[in-house]
Design a protein that fits this description.
about 170 residues
């Protein structure tokens, strides 16, 4: 138990560190690119937060144990592509500069994929209670079996001939 907690702390700390580095690099490159393309300074300052915010939400959704992760994966990959594009476009045109610029986004992608795919398996869905095949009225709790219904009918049976009142 304690070993699992230590591994989880180390894993989350490492992921947070990689995410922080990738976020800072991505933010600065996107802001620089927005300014370079003529965006107002205020817009250039907040524009990168839309990509980084989307990636944060997608990362949480990928790692929180939910079964349906398609939308989170799409959002995460859109963020990665936007970040990689901004990192490439903001760097010098030589190979080394481009590799250095894209590395934080690639490292974040790899880290999140490792975390998302190595998570705890979701708890199995609870099974529906088994229906008793002997029950006559399907779907009703407490429905009598055929034998129980016959016994009840016999106990409360009406006499076949009218009974006259007692004198």
């Amino acid at each position: 138990m304690q070993n699992r907690s230590i591994r989880r702390i180390i894993s989350h700390t490492g992921t947070g560190t990689v995410a922080a580095i990738a976020g800072v690099v991505s933010y600065s490159h996107m802001r620089e690119l927005a300014l370079h393309t003529g965006q107002p300074a205020a817009l250039a300052t907040i524009l990168p937060l839309s990509v980084d915010g989307m990636m944060i939400v997608a990362t949480i959704a990928l790692t929180d144990g939910r079964q349906h992760k398609a939308a989170a994966r799409v959002a995460f990959w859109l963020g990665v592509v936007a970040s990689l594009a901004a990192n490439l476009l903001a760097s010098r045109p030589d190979l080394e500069a481009r590799l250095v610029s894209v590395w934080p986004a690639v490292a974040l992608l790899a880290t999140i994929e490792v975390i998302a795919r190595s998570g705890v398996k979701p708890a199995p869905k609870p099974r529906a209670p088994r229906k008793d095949p002997k029950r006559v009225a399907a779907g009703r709790k407490g429905a009598a079996t055929v034998k129980e219904r016959k016994q009840l009918a016999a106990a409360y049976a009406m006499p076949s001939a009218p009974v006259s009142p007692a004198p």
